[in-house]
Design brief:
Distance between the termini of chain B: 48 Å
Order of helices and strands of chain B: EEEHEEHEHHHHEHEHEEHH
Distance between the termini of chain A: 42 Å
Strand content of chain B: 15-25%
Number of helices of chain A: 7
Oligomer: heterodimer
Structural class of chain B: alpha/beta
Shape of chain B: globular
Helix content of chain A: 25-40%
Shape of chain A: globular
Largest sheet of chain B: 6 strands, mixed
Order of helices and strands of chain A: EEEHEEHEHHHEHEHE
Strand order of the largest sheet of chain A: 6-7-8-3-9
Radius of gyration of chain A: 18 Å
Radius of gyration of chain B: 18 Å
Number of strands of chain A: 9
Number of helices of chain B: 10
Strand content of chain A: 25-35%
Chain lengths: 234, 261
């Protein structure tokens, strides 16, 4: 059996809104699952069930009140929820890729450099990183002319493809995908399905949110039902 | 096993300072590693500039220590050094980018001279090479090399700020302190400067401490954040954690008060 890449134990997340009367919103309670190399776990549940919160928690973007997020990093399982900030950055550089719903565009930086940046942070030569970024963007039907422009003026679908390229290019062993196909046409959706399949075949563990049933059925190896994870709304 | 690079470059332990009876900052602990950018945020009067002055050897704190890992002599307490040693350290290993470029530039000296004199201060003597390096740095910070003999008081605010950055980076420091580096600049000029700083910090592997009240600046530049209020650090973490999932009431207020254009 292949290696466990992600193991989530008793994960709990509560937001306390201090400036709104100190309201505490418990979004996740007792979440547990494992994802092995080559698997794709799909998070399923209605809007507001905490799917994106869970994904952000796996990336250590959100800080947890309870539980552990074990990630296989440099060969061993490491609890990301309890890791030092520097270690979290190292894990993000080498091990975990996260494709958010929306691209956070940096002023003036061309799309091709936005995509190449994670490779550069791993020490790849600028020219090589750029060439690889351009090839992947081309697969995602971003023209050579467009990729030299800053993505802040791109359409929603174009920005999303830039974001996808940035997340997939380094070949992370753990991939977190938050609705990567939400604003894509059928052609580009098919490209993303192929990218996910290639990542799985390469041994990546994927956790994703996909509203599109076609994508979900194409890539899922397991489904995690989130309706049970969300405590009854107060 | 402790690797040399696993030791922090800069460490503050219990740094506190008062101005007479008024609190500047209290009990600040922090570590900064090589290649790391730390943002310090908070409103006016939160103590962030006081802390920056203490960290950068410009204000001896009333209590606490500031430790720096030197290239050759191990870790030193910067306020335990003699004045001459401290000045040498500041000149060779550190850069300080002031909010107002006029505080960091010599306005009566040409742009090239502003960059070149920093090289001379660390021992460069060959005029031709100094001028060539100065020219290369002007281009690197996107100032037309044809302006090398012009005085910075003929430059725009954005150009002056970029010149100040070139003047600081030409000696290849390991650590740069920046006090509101994009304050006082037009928004379009800010974006250009931020993009430039991002690239330089990454390419040169610089460590930096950036004080700002602009949370968007920290998102682009800083790996980690300290949030200060009334002289104390109320929250710290990775930049995206603090901005996306703020825990302290004050941080929540700061983050929720930013207008999203």
């Amino acid at each position: 059996m292949s290696d466990v890449m992600i193991r989530v134990e008793n994960l709990g997340k509560t937001f306390t809104l201090h400036n709104q009367g100190g309201v505490a919103m418990e979004v996740l309670r007792g979440v547990e699952f494992e994802v092995r190399a080559g698997e794709c776990l799909v998070l399923n549940g209605p809007s507001g069930a905490g799917k994106s919160t869970l994904l952000r928690s796996l990336y250590a973007n959100y800080r947890l009140q309870r539980g552990r997020v074990w990630i296989r990093h440099r060969g061993a399982l490491l609890d990301l929820a309890g890791a030092e900030p520097r270690r979290v950055l190292e894990v993000r550089r080498e091990t975990i890729g996260y494709v958010s719903q929306f691209l956070r565009a940096v002023p003036r930086v061309p799309a091709v450099d936005v995509v190449a940046e994670p490779l550069r942070l791993r020490g790849e030569m600028a020219a090589v990183a750029r060439r690889k970024a351009a090839a992947l963007l081309e697969r995602l039907n971003i023209s050579a002319r467009l990729m030299e422009l800053a993505p802040s003026t791109f359409s929603g679908g174009e920005q999303q493809r830039v974001n996808i390229a940035r997340g997939f290019l380094p070949g992370y062993p753990v991939l977190l995908l938050d609705e990567p196909t939400a604003s894509l046409d059928a052609t580009n959706r098919a490209v993303v399905i192929r990218l996910i399949e290639e990542a799985k075949a390469g041994g990546a563990a994927v956790v994703g949110i996909f509203h599109d049933a076609e994508v979900r059925e194409a890539v899922a190896t397991a489904v995690h039902d989130m309706t049970a994870a969300a405590p009854a709304a107060a | 096993m402790t690797n040399e690079t696993e030791q922090p470059l800069l460490r503050a332990v219990g740094v506190s300072h008062w101005y007479g009876g008024t609190l500047g900052c209290r009990d600040v602990d922090l570590d900064l590693h090589a290649g790391e950018v730390l943002g310090i945020v908070g409103e006016s009067g939160s103590g962030k500039s006081t802390l920056l002055a203490c960290l950068s050897a410009r204000l001896r704190p009333a209590a606490g220590r500031v430790l720096y890992r030197t290239r050759h002599q191990g870790t030193v307490d910067i306020y335990g050094l003699g004045e001459a040693e401290r000045r040498l350290l500041m000149r060779t290993d550190w850069g300080i980018v002031h909010q107002n470029p006029r505080d960091g530039l010599r306005l009566a000296v040409s742009a090239g001279g502003n960059v070149g004199e920093r090289l001379m201060a660390v021992g460069a003597r060959h005029y031709g090479r100094i001028r060539e390096t100065a020219r290369a740095w002007l281009e690197r910070v996107e100032i037309d090399a044809g302006r090398i003999d012009d005085r910075p008081d003929t430059f725009s605010g954005g150009m002056q700020q970029r010149l100040q950055i070139a003047r600081n980076l030409v000696t290849q420091p390991r650590l740069v302190f920046m006090d509101e580096p994009t304050g006082g600049l037009d928004v379009s000029v800010q974006a250009r400067l931020l993009d430039l700083l991002r690239g330089l910090v990454a390419d040169l592997g610089l460590a930096a401490v950036v004080v700002t009240h602009d949370l968007a600046v920290t998102r682009l530049l800083a790996h980690r954040l300290l949030v200060m209020r009334r002289g104390e650090v109320v929250e710290s973490g990775l930049t995206d954690q603090v901005l996306d999932d703020p825990q302290h009431p004050y941080t929540q207020l700061l983050v929720s008060s930013v207008l999203q254009p």
